[in-house]
Amino acid sequence: MNLLDLAKELGLDPRKTSASHGGEYHCPCPSCGGNDRFMFWPEDDRYWCRQCNSKGDAIQFCRDFLGLSFQAACMKAQKNSANSNSQSRFKPADTSSIREPSGSWKDKARHFSDTAHQRLLIDKTAMGLVVQRGLSFNSIQQYRLGWNPIKAFHRRSDWGLKETENRKWICLPAGIVIPILENSQIQKLKIRKSEWKEGNFYGKYYEVPGSSNMIPIFGDPSIPICIVVEAEFDAMLVIQEAGDLCNCIAIGGAQKRPDLSTQQWLVSKKLLLFALDFDVAGKKEYFYWHESYPNLEPWPVPEEKSPGDFFVKGGSLRMWISSGLKLLQNHELLEDSRHQRL
Ligand SMILES: [Zn+2]
């Protein structure tokens, strides 16, 4: 939004007083009051109060008068300028579109997942597959990973899902069972198919119908650094290796968009390190993330495609993240120089 939109949003009732610099507007000062002492030029992205001498641009306006953080202010100010077309292209999923699984779904998911977890703990071969991914025994227990040994057909009604003439069953493939929890309740259930091979028509992950479409946060959400990865396994490894330095979100598919509350949470972070698989899909997605989050830096793993692959080949996720933290300084410098310029 430009200064004119922002002033209107704040209820300042600006009046156009001249056409100079693409339009000059006067209104009361949001800081010291009066009638017309606050002047601004939306085209120049500049404001000035001739009484209290407060001045700045749209971003400064958002910080001083709307109380937004630097990142949130950038987003708000960008919203106007970059706009109308980019807004529709980059519209985040809104909160109303968050699906909460039903109570019977959660009960069924808990039961299935607990059984699978117990099975994994006693099945050496299956355990080998999980350990191969670099996950420690502690992580396996913490995330309650499980094992589904054979393809299983369940009635949809058993999961509290609607049945129709043609849709009576869900088919749970064999593989590693990944429950995604929030407040110790299962919100989402995925299976990494054991029979999946490169080139298969369907993806390597199966998401049980009825799962929430929320984007899970791994680790301590209060840490101001967040790593953005694609797969849940990557997120678990990041927390296992560097959970004291950062938290992590697994967007679970390159094209997924954060919902509004996740978006606000992401914007409030000091630094987002973007580590989506840098395949064709990942690179394309980077454009959206770059446009939407001024606090984001691309930070692919130095080798291999994903943090998980990098770790399994002997790379240190901790060192990779530690060196990414140095980018934080750049962001702070950027913010400082902005202050000085104004
Ligand atoms: Zn003033």
Secondary structure tally, helices: 13
| Strand count | 16
Percent in strands:
15-25%
Q: Main β-sheet, in a few words?
A: 5 strands, antiparallel
Helix content: 25-40%
Oligomeric organization of the protein chains: single chain
> CATH first level of the largest domain: which class?
Alpha Beta
Order of helices and strands: HEEEEEHHHHHHEEEEEEEEHEHEHEHHH
Tally of discrete structural domains = 3
How confident overall, as mean pLDDT?
87
CATH topology of the largest domain: Dna Topoisomerase Vi A Subunit, Chain: A, domain 2
Provide the fold topology.
Blueprint: H1 3-9, E1 15-18, E2 24-29, E3 33-41, E4 46-49, E5 55-56, H2 58-65, H3 70-81, H4 83-89, H5 103-122, H6 124-131, H7 137-142, E6 146-148, E7 152-155, E8 169-172, E9 175-182, E10 185-193, E11 205-207, E12 217-218, E13 225-229, H8 232-242, E14 247-250, H9 260-267, E15 271-274, H10 280-292, E16 296-298, H11 307-312, H12 317-324, H13 327-341
Parallel strand pairs: 13-14, 13-15, 15-16
Antiparallel strand pairs: 1-2, 2-3, 3-4, 4-5, 6-9, 7-8, 9-10, 10-11, 12-14
Helix pairs in contact: 2-3
The structure holds zinc ion (ZN).
The site of zinc ion (ZN) has 9 residues, from strand 3.
